[in-house]
Design goal:
The structure holds 2 protein chains of 2 kinds.
Chain A (H helix, E strand, L loop, with lengths): L8 H30 L4 H17 L13 H27 L7 E7 L5 H13 L3 E7 L4 E7 L4 H22 L2 H17 L1
Antiparallel strand pairs in A: 1-3, 2-3
Chain B lengths: L1 H29 L3 H27 L2 H31 L8 E4 L5
Helix pairs in contact in B: 1-2, 2-3
The chains are: A mainly alpha, B mainly alpha.
GO molecular function, one term (chain B): sodium:proton antiporter activity
Protein name (chain B): Multisubunit sodium/proton antiporter, MrpG subunit
Family (chain B): Belongs to the CPA3 antiporters (TC 2.A.63) subunit G family.
Chain lengths: 198, 110
C-alpha cells in the first residue's frame, strides 16, 4: 500500500522527499487558515501563522498520507459538480421523508468493497458518501477496504444494488480526479467487468 | 442594483437553509431509531449550513468575512461525517439498533 520499497536507498530518498513535500503543503494550509481566521493578511498575522503552523506540525504530528496520484482539474470539476447535484437531490428526499405523515422508513446496512484500498481513497470516499443524505458510514474495514453503510428508506432489493453502485461511482470519480494512472486503470477495468457480468 | 440582487439572493438562501434545518429537527423527532435520526441530524443540515453560509456571504460581501465563511464551510464538511460515523458506530456496537427496522444487515456476520 505504501508505494516505496524501504530496502533500496532511492525509494527511501523519494519517500523522504514526499514526506517533506506533504509537510510543506500542510504548513502552507495552516498559515493560510490562520490568516483567514483573523480575517486579514498582515505581516503580523503571517509571522504568527508561521509560528502556530510550526508548533502544530511539531506537537501534533499526523501519520503520513501517501498521495501517489496527480490532480486532474476537469475530473475534479466533475466530482464537485456531481457531488453538489447529489447533495441537493438527496437532501430534498430525506427532508420529504422527515415530514411525510405516518411514514416509517425501512433501512438496511450494506457492505461495499472498494477497489482502491489506499487510506486517502478510503477516507475521501467515506467522507463524500457520508455527506450525501440517505447514507451513513457505520464502520470502515481498513485492511480489506470495505465500507459498511446504513441506508435510509429502502423499499425494494434493487435499492441496495443502486446504493452499492452509487458508492463505487463516487469512488471512481475520486480516483479519476486525484488517483494515479494505475489506480484509474484498476477502477476502470473493474467497472467494465462488472457491467459484462451483470 | 447588484447589491439589491445579492441581498435578495442572500435572503432566499437564508430562508431555504433555515427551512432545511427545521426539517432536520422534525426528522430527529419523528424517526424511529438512532441511525435513522442520525440521517436527519447530519444530512439536511449539511446543505442547510452551506445555504446559510452562502446567504450570509451574499449579505456581508466583505473579503475578511468571506474568508471566515469559507473556513466555516470547509470545517463543517470535513467534521460532520466524522461525528456522524462515531455516533453511528457507537450506537451499533452498543446494540442500540433495532433489527426489526433493518431489511438487511451485512455487518452482523462480521
Amino acid at each position: 500500500m505504501t508505494g516505496g520499497t524501504g530496502a533500496q536507498p532511492p525509494g527511501r530518498l523519494r519517500g523522504r522527499v514526499a514526506t517533506w513535500r506533504d509537510q510543506a503543503v500542510a504548513f502552507g494550509w495552516l498559515v493560510l487558515i490562520w490568516n483567514l481566521l483573523w480575517g486579514e493578511f498582515t505581516w503580523g498575522n503571517l509571522v504568527a501563522g508561521l509560528l502556530v503552523a510550526a508548533a502544530v506540525l511539531l506537537f501534533y504530528p499526523l501519520p503520513p498520507v501517501t498521495f501517489g496520484g496527480r490532480l486532474r482539474p476537469p475530473a475534479l470539476l466533475v466530482l464537485a459538480g456531481r457531488f453538489v447535484a447529489e447533495l441537493v437531490v438527496a437532501s430534498v428526499r430525506v427532508a420529504r421523508i422527515a415530514v411525510q405523515p405516518g411514514f416509517r422508513p425501512r433501512s438496511a446496512i450494506i457492505a461495499v468493497p472498494l477497489r482502491v484500498r489506499t487510506d486517502l481513497n478510503l477516507a475521501l470516499t467515506a467522507e463524500l458518501v457520508s455527506l450525501v443524505p440517505g447514507t451513513l458510514i457505520l464502520e470502515v474495514d481498513r485492511e480489506s477496504g470495505v465500507l459498511y453503510l446504513h441506508v435510509l428508506d429502502v423499499r425494494r432489493p434493487q435499492d441496495l444494488a443502486d446504493n452499492r453502485a452509487r458508492v463505487r461511482e463516487i469512488e471512481r470519480r475520486i480516483v479519476r480526479a486525484i488517483g494515479s494512472a494505475a489506480e484509474v486503470r484498476q477502477v476502470h477495468t473493474d467497472h467494465v467487468e462488472k457491467e459484462n457480468n451483470s | 442594483m447588484p447589491g439589491i440582487v445579492a441581498d435578495w439572493l442572500g435572503a432566499v438562501c437564508l430562508v431555504a437553509g433555515a427551512l432545511l434545518a427545521l426539517v432536520a429537527a422534525i426528522g430527529v423527532l419523528r424517526f424511529p431509531d438512532v441511525l435513522d435520526r442520525m440521517h436527519a441530524a447530519t444530512k439536511p443540515q449539511t446543505l442547510g449550513v452551506l445555504l446559510l453560509l452562502a446567504g450570509v456571504a451574499l449579505r456581508l460581501r466583505t473579503p475578511g468575512d468571506l474568508g471566515m465563511v469559507v473556513l466555516v464551510g470547509v470545517f463543517q464538511l470535513a467534521t460532520a461525517p466524522v461525528a456522524a460515523q462515531m455516533i453511528g458506530r457507537a450506537a451499533y456496537r452498543a446494540g442500540r439498533v433495532d433489527p426489526t427496522l433493518l431489511d438487511v444487515d451485512e455487518l452482523a456476520n462480521r
